[in-house]
């Protein structure tokens, strides 16, 4: 299979498929949208967790922590390359580096800029290589942290998104993983049904707000239907952007994923 | 007129790294050494390779061409010698190497990465490689090896697209073809013998032509850490002694002469094996 986004002048781009180095089972990431006028708080997270743990056969299996680093290109003086300069040079000067708790040996880069939509998978030591290049600096880091559960054929992660202090978080996420199948197309209706069951339970428990899907636009990054860890990387980067967008309504927020990271063309 | 070839070794590892600086070839009739730097732009090498090609054409028309062919069989003899020393079958090497350099005003210093696409595998695999500066000082000068840090990382096959997007440009590309032996002798050692080929058009690997016809690059690689590179260097140097009949190995920047025993050793190896390379 050929990646959909290829350079017309570069035959090397079509050599092989955009296969992930890490094969995983399909996952769906959701973001908790609080009720209008209310905030994301610790008590709200506690309510969500309590509701989940109320499912009959659910078992807690552990904790998880993902780390997303925002990289920015620097110039000869060590200053960040400005948006104007980057735009004039067609440079992808901001991108994300993602380390997953359940894939410690791999690392992902996501360039979410419209002209450079790319997700790269690499060995974890690529972080050392990138720091040795001296072309990029970490501008900030975001964390996703929480608990992991097993419920029948599903694996759930529920957690929060924060910058430096876990108690000062700005987003709640829920990840659903369906274990028996690897095809996203076949899993879609099953996950949708499970998602509906979860929503119903949250409504019954009167937890304020509801879950919304993270739309990651896999096809724009050239990914195929069979699910890979790169799909997960895209969902978390899209979630980060969505949390930033969700908090844009005049509030001070820690998630400064500005719109220049995903400027609509 | 005839000319002989002098091989230079290159030892590299995750920490130890030798870079090939100079290939030397000598015209015995004129007792003249010609040196080129492989890290320079290949255009200079192309001019030299054209000169060598003309010599080859001359020799083909000359009764001495039989001797010329024997020299070219040094590589076959080396293969036989390595097979005997290592005791493992050889691996085919076919690597498309992209040298990428940072664009103008990107980074506090200009930097370079190499993308390696292994075409010998059923499905091509990609690796990105960065080599740091060489270790300097009195201790470094006393070593028989050049030491520098190297980081290699496997990447997905859109790595070229990624580095273009973040500001790196293609400086040059090479196709390296040859063979390798991977074995254990105190430390894991890899001996790679390759020829470098250039593409006349962008990425046209099917049309690749030798950059330096008749000249092979011999690399000896061993992984090491920052606290044991002396021991690893000793193990590699010790192994290199077995190649002395054919090759003289040295630190980059220190020239080696022609091995006087090379022709005799090569013909001996070939005759012992029935003239067939493995």
From TrEMBL, chain A:
Keywords: Activator, Nucleus, Transcription, Transcription regulation
UniProt-listed PANTHER family: MEDIATOR OF RNA POLYMERASE II TRANSCRIPTION SUBUNIT 20, UBIQUITIN SPECIFIC PROTEASE HOMOLOG 49
Role played: Component of the Mediator complex, a coactivator involved in the regulated transcription of nearly all RNA polymerase II-dependent genes. Mediator functions as a bridge to convey information from gene-specific regulatory proteins to the basal RNA polymerase II transcription machinery. Mediator is recruited to promoters by direct interactions with regulatory proteins and serves as a scaffold for the assembly of a functional preinitiation complex with RNA polymerase II and the general transcription factors.
Family membership: Belongs to the Mediator complex subunit 20 family.
Any single GO BP term: regulation of transcription by RNA polymerase II
Main localization, broad class: nucleus
GO cellular component: mediator complex
UniProt-listed InterPro entries: Mediator_Med20
Name of the molecule in the record: Mediator of RNA polymerase II transcription subunit 20
Assembly and binders: Component of the Mediator complex.
UniProtKB/TrEMBL annotation, chain B:
One of the record's GO molecular function terms: transcription coregulator activity
Gene3D superfamilies linked to this entry: Hypothetical Protein Pfu-838710-001 (2.40.320.10)
A cellular component annotation (GO) from this entry: mediator complex
GO biological process: regulation of transcription by RNA polymerase II; termination of RNA polymerase II transcription
Main location as per UniProt: nucleus
Subcellular location: Nucleus
Family: Belongs to the Mediator complex subunit 18 family.
Protein name: Mediator of RNA polymerase II transcription subunit 18
